Amino acid sequence: MTQDPKSLIRIARENGEDESVEPLDLGQRVRDLRKELDWTLEQAAKQAGLARSTLSKIENGQMSPTYDALKKLAVGLQISVPQLFTPPQQEKVNGRMTITRSDEGQKHATATYEHVLLGENLTRKKMLPYRARVRARDMAEFDGWVRHDGEEFLYVLTGVVRLYTEFYEPVEMKRGDSAYYDATMGHNVVSLSQEDATILWVTSLA
């Protein structure tokens, strides 16, 4: 059975890389937006045309604002109403790094590929990098198309491969060639070399 990137994504998530999204706290969101502007309650309330006490109650979750109040808040905070309910981007983590030596990495072997997960020690990754040894020599060796969510980047490290995709003609690729494609489109790779080809795959964790 072919082990596709969907399986690798599942493995990555089982290793703690998939975290549930916390529900948005509107009061905290408003407070954060106000502080980003370096405004006091008085300043923000004045900009929004609201009473200071009203804004304070909203920030502390003591009252649910009317739509009219939401519009005033959005205008005062210089954003759109939908942005009030859009969670802020996750904080950037500075200085994160992990090294995977050439003889390291968790291997997941199948009849068609041998995947080696890279950068396993980092959690909450935005992408899943892995090196693959391409064992397959013919499309008949696959149990249908491989497809999964997200986008994917392929780079040929050694040998020659043929990239098959659902909507395009097969493409022969040699060392140094690369492809970037929508991973929801069916795709498979076979080796044309006498030796197994090796490729680098990077899959977005969408």
| End-to-end Cα distance | 24 Å
Q: Specify the number of helices.
A: 6
Strand percent estimate: 25-35%
Strand order of the largest sheet: 1-2-3-9-4-7
* Largest sheet data: 6 strands, antiparallel
Radius of gyration: 25 Å
Low-confidence stretches: none
What structural category do the secondary elements indicate?
A: alpha+beta
- Name the helicity range: 25-40%
Question: What is the topological layout?
Answer:
Layout: H1 5-17, H2 26-36, H3 41-48, H4 52-59, H5 67-76, H6 81-84, E1 107-109, E2 113-117, E3 127-134, E4 151-158, E5 160-165, E6 171-174, E7 178-182, E8 187-191, E9 197-204
Antiparallel strand pairs: 1-2, 2-3, 3-9, 4-7, 4-9, 5-6, 5-8
Structure characterization notes:
- The chain is α+β, with helices and mostly antiparallel strands and 206 residues long.
- It has six helices and nine strands; from the N terminus they run ααααααβββββββββ.
- It has helices spanning 5-17, 26-36, 41-48, 52-59, 67-76, 81-84, and strands at residues 107-109, 113-117, 127-134, 151-158, 160-165, 171-174, 178-182, 187-191, 197-204.
- The strands form two sheets. Strands 1-2-3-9-4-7 form a six-stranded antiparallel beta sheet.
- β5 (160-165) and β6 (171-174) form a beta hairpin.
- The two termini are 24 Å apart.
- The model has no long low-confidence stretch (mean pLDDT 85).
Primary descriptors:
9 strands, 6 helices, 206 residues, 6-stranded antiparallel β-sheet, alpha+beta
